[in-house]
Specification:
By secondary structure, the protein is of the alpha/beta class. It has one domain (20-336): NADP-dependent oxidoreductase domain (TIM Barrel, Alpha-Beta Barrel), CATH 3.20.20.100. It is built from 12 helices and 10 strands. Bound molecules: NADP nicotinamide-adenine-dinucleotide phosphate. Residues 34-38, 64, 141, 171-172, 196, 225-231, 234-236, 245-246, 279, 281, 298-302, 306, 309-310 line the site of NADP nicotinamide-adenine-dinucleotide phosphate (NAP).
Length: 339
Amino acid sequence: MTDPVYAASESRYEQMPYRRCGRSGVLLPALSLGLWHNFGSFKPFQEIKAMAHYAFDHGICHFDLANNYGPTYGTAEENFGHLMAASLKPYRDELFISTKAGWDMWPGPYGNWGSRKYLMASLDQSLKRMNLDYVDVFYSHRYDPATPLEETMQALVDIVRQGKALYAGISRYPTPKAAEAFRYLAERDVPCLLYQDRYNIIDRAPAEAGQLDLGWENGTGFISFSPLQQGLLTNRYLNGIPADSRMARNTSLKQSVLTETVLESLRGLDAIAQRRGQSLAGMALSWLLRDERMTSVIIGASSVAQIEDNLKALDFLSFSEEELQEIERFSVRIRESGI
Ligand SMILES: NC(=O)c1ccc[n+]([C@@H]2O[C@H](COP(=O)([O-])OP(=O)(O)OC[C@H]3O[C@@H](n4cnc5c(N)ncnc54)[C@H](OP(=O)(O)O)[C@@H]3O)[C@@H](O)[C@H]2O)c1
């Protein structure tokens, strides 16, 4: 039953800037919300609901999922389905929802990588879990070197033609393969809407590998994930490792990355952020959004307070040349330490 107490804020579109996604009709919020870590079976549903409602009330209308988000796998989509049933269903046409397949999801040869068999079955499962008739964008979650690119791309084309996704996207493709994928999709009138990769103050790989420029020239939007390097680019670890933090779990964010050099550099970055009047997380997001090629950045968050803090990034999008150079020096030091 729909939650009778939730009515989205009337002012939800007043503060958030919306950016055009490549050469498409789609506008995306500068900040999107990702459901990788904090929306699964271990998080109380009340907290999930509070975060999703707070985000939507502040103009974050893009929610990014994948089949294996949780933990455990599938449970972020299941909880999103509960959320649709409880409160968001009336707002379906105001929401831009993505999911993906490409990483390990179920046992055996058909639950991983990029075959048509896996992608088609996985999207059907995702739609059921999320209580949706269609997603707005469906991604091939990673490049599969063993499957012909044509097979993976044709699956995306057919998924769009079947109406199960409105647009196609790809994530984590080497630049030449991304170029081939863009070409294949465009030739079939299903232009690639979004390219998704990790990009932040520390990790510059997509810019260095030419993906940002490639997408820009192709008319494909670029959406950055892990903009806070999973929480490293925040005040979370400046004074130890909090018990409720992602790093405490030591899974996707290893404790071994927090060396003395890294910590010193994070403190240096934090000092710049404080001078600018924002949090370190806020500065990391502002730094990304100052680039016009960035359609949106997908934040993760474990509390409403973090989303609130991250939204403030939108008020600080300009940087002086000195600030950029100083950030660069710390960033290089962190990268040279092997992260
Ligand atoms: N395509 C892909 O292959 C791929 C891969 C990874 C992620 N993604 C997408 O990108 C999304 C974001 O990734 P991510 O979760 O790694 O993003 P992130 O924004 O880099 O890190 C999120 C974590 O940072 C901490 N945090 C966030 N805001 C904070 C603040 N204001 N102050 C202090 N700490 C703060 C929280 O850590 P604590 O939990 O410790 O509080 C939060 O869980 C995912 O949910 C997913 O949708 C896609």
